[in-house]
Amino acid sequence: MIEYLLDTVVRAIAVGTPLLWAGLGEIYAERAGVVNLGVEGMMILGAFFAFAVAHTTGNPVVGLVVAGGVGGIAALLHAFVAVTLRANQYVSGLALAMFGIGLTGVLGRGWEGIPLLATLPEISALTYLSVLAAAGLWFVLYHTRAGIVIRSAGESPAAADALGVNVYVIRYLCVIFGGVLAGVAGGFLSVAYRPSWTEGMTGGAGWIAIAIAIFAGWNPLKAIWGAFLFGALYYLSFRLQTWVPPELLRMMPFAFTILVLAATAGSRRGEGAPEALGLPYVSGQR
Q1: Where along the chain do its domains lie?
Q2: Whether 143 contacts 263, CB under 8 Å
Q3: Taking Cα atoms as reference points, which of 93, 84, 275, 71 lies closest to residue 166?
Q4: CA 4, CA 109: separation in Å to the nearest integer?
Q5: 9-109+119-267: which CATH topology?
Q6: N or C: more exposed end of the chain, with fewer CB within 10 A?
């Protein structure tokens, strides 16, 4: 029994690591007022490019760096559509998710089944860094001038604009930052957690990361517990295959997301949702 519990804790931490990285990125994007439902797409792009680069260079760390860059570029596209063009953020994010899944499905042909000789351990420096990053991002968000600027861009962009804050730049930077972290999260999946490439290998992890941001009340520190809790539930869903039909297990990531959204829908303001979340902003608008 103790061995089973220890194994569950270890695996929950391993699964929770990419969820925490992606969740932290989404928290910052949403704190600045931009919803990005494209986390799944950015993660799968990061997973593919991290694996391809790690296999080519023999260096998984380089793969992770490239994954972060790819995630940031993908997020830049979303920022351009959502912030500059002021298009519907939800539609843009969903399009990004489908784009990432579709593109990696095409590019990934021929990469499946290829072994990755150099890998990172499931619980590596990236796991410890994720916890430190959560603490650091919490401090920045609540105890620095930069954090005030970020939160003001999401709470009252008009007031921030009147005080000389460039809301567009802040939103761009936060969305891109979120994309970088999502890319790293996807890269961790393909070079550490499950060192291989499989089409659709993120398996809904991006949607869980979005749910974690909400579950944590947009608070980076609370995201630590949310990520490891969801990691444990995600892992246990596979341990239950003996008793639960596979079709139901494949629904688990989406079921988690729906339950969290339903549980927090009635109290979003109390949980810290930014006032202008999801709303486009026009400079000078009051």
Answers
A1: 9-109+119-267
A2: no
A3: 84
A4: 37
A5: ABC transporter involved in vitamin B12 uptake, BtuC (1.10.3470)
A6: N
- What is the C-alpha separation between 121 and 132, in angstroms, rounded? 18
Write b or e for each residue in 88-113: b if 16 or more Cβ atoms lie within 10 A of its Cβ, otherwise e: ebeebbebbbebbbeebeeebeebee
Structure tokens at 22: 């992606």
Strand, helix or coil at 83?
A: helix
Please give the structure tokens belonging to residue 89.
């953020």
Helices (H), 58-124: 60-79, 89-107
pLDDT in single tens digits along all 286 residues of the chain = 677 678 778 888 999 999 999 999 999 999 999 999 999 999 999 999 999 999 999 999 999 999 999 999 999 999 999 999 999 999 999 999 999 999 999 999 989 989 888 888 888 899 999 999 999 999 999 999 999 999 999 999 999 999 999 999 999 999 999 999 999 999 999 999 989 999 999 988 999 999 899 889 999 999 999 899 888 877 777 766 666 666 666 676 567 667 766 766 655 444 568 999 999 998 766 5
- Let me know how long the chain is: 286
Structure token digits, residue 155: 């709470």
